[in-house]
Amino acid sequence: MFSIMNVLRTLLAKLIAFLYVVTTVAGAGLPFGASELPETPDDFTPVIRFAVCSDVHLDGDPEAAEAQRLAKLFDTVYAYSESQEYKNFDALCVAGDFTDQGKAEQYDLFNSIIAENKKDETQLLVCMGNHEFIDTRDVDASQGTRMFEAKMERDDDTSTVINGYHFILSSYCEDGHSFTGKCSWINSEIKKAIKDTGDKPVFVFQHPAPFASIYGSISWGDPSIPAVFLKYPQVVNFSGHSHFPVNDPRSCWQGGYTAFGCGTLSYFETELDGISGNFPYSVEEAAQFYIVEADAEGNVRVLSYDLITDQFFDNEYYLTDLAKRNFDYSYAKMKLRDDAPVFPESTQISVDTNDEGNSILTFTGAEDKYVVESYKLSVTKNGIKVAEDNFSGKYMYLFEEDVYTSDLGKLEPGKYNVQIVALNAYAETSAPFSYTFTVK
Ligand SMILES: [Fe+2]
């Protein structure tokens, strides 16, 4: 929600992002444009496949959408795996908030969905989010950890190896909200992993994003984790907490290490003007996760999937030579690849009057190489602003028509002009789309 802290964090993030862009572009030798996005080669041959999700928020009701989505995730990944040459679904990794409050019946529902849907070939790897502490944190947050240990029959932290790849999952400390007491353990496990597998990626999971990395990490990130990860370019990190969409290109970030935001199986949140607490449109129509594959040499493919419409998002990532700091998805490179949104010639726009006498603006969306994050519009009469609006794009809803409406209120008769600007994920703005209309 809006707060002065969020504003301050946003300003700090913008400063960090600016400095980062300047230093990275200078260091990367990319003053005149960036290379094309990497593509997965045809002969890519996985030796491991895992799925990553977070923020399921099971409330204990087996009929709830979230419970159905978690079950559907298994069906989807098994069906996809069966269609591939490498047929295993080796692990499901859950980056926290799989329960809504950490209640016993919510753990029981989670475990029953796992029992009914997971095959023996698939390992379950899971760490705690802040919501696993909600039921106990006001009295004694450590009881949340005890609940996790008892119900999940494991420690709150996990370090394991699957098919030659290290997986490290860390839960919040027993205070339920910090990682300062966990950083030393995470650091030593990454070190051990690198001693074992050298340049190969190390997969690390925790609930909040490392601060100032992926989209949502300013408002919802943890400040103590980045110092650990920045030492190890092999780290490929997955986090949840923000509920920001996976198909926003900023949900993949590289800069010293690699980070992915896992979205949610429950409800979306986004930013508007850099401020979190924006809940766009059909926020509960949210069910996104990743399928990750890696080959024997350490190359990694990350696919993004939408369970709501049963299809892959366009966002596919191919990670190579991480130990050599080959960071094709850095903010700076992605920003250079993207161009400002464009309103196509086919753009349709109209203003109608509704039953209450309000003027309702309707227009079709702009186009961008990745996503149109938001729109800003301003309505003037005789050069004086009489209405304005600011709202999200619908890029996270593949089932939605890319059409927008804005209630301009009751306008006096006369001639008006509306200017609409579209912004992409990297704050690049379209030329204003101008439309003149008359209210009778
Ligand atoms: Fe959550």
Summarize the helices and strands and which ones pair or pack.
Elements: H1 4-28, E1 46-53, H2 65-82, E2 91-94, H3 104-117, E3 123-126, H4 137-140, H5 142-152, E4 158-162, E5 165-169, H6 183-197, E6 202-205, H7 217-220, H8 226-229, E7 235-239, E8 252-254, E9 258-261, E10 270-272, E11 275-278, E12 288-295, E13 300-306, E14 311-319, H9 331-337, E15 349-353, E16 359-364, E17 372-381, E18 384-392, E19 403-407, E20 414-424, E21 433-439
Parallel strand pairs: 1-2, 2-3, 5-6, 6-7, 7-9
Antiparallel strand pairs: 1-12, 4-5, 8-9, 10-11, 12-13, 13-14, 15-16, 16-19, 17-18, 17-20, 20-21
Helix pairs in contact: 2-3, 3-5
Textual characterization of the structure:
By secondary structure, the protein is of the alpha+beta class. It is built from nine helices and 21 strands. The strands form five sheets. Strands 3-2-1-12-13-14 form a six-stranded mixed sheet, with helices on one face. A six-stranded mixed sheet has the order 4-5-6-7-9-8, covered by helices on one side. Strands 18-17-20-21 form a four-stranded antiparallel sheet, with no helix packed on it. About 4% of the residues have low confidence. Helix content is 23%, strand content 29%. The chain is globular. The protein has two domains: 334 residues, Metallo-dependent phosphatases (Purple Acid Phosphatase, chain A, domain 2), CATH 3.60.21; 91 residues, Immunoglobulin-like, CATH 2.60.40. Helix 2 packs parallel to helix 3. The protein binds fe (ii) ion.
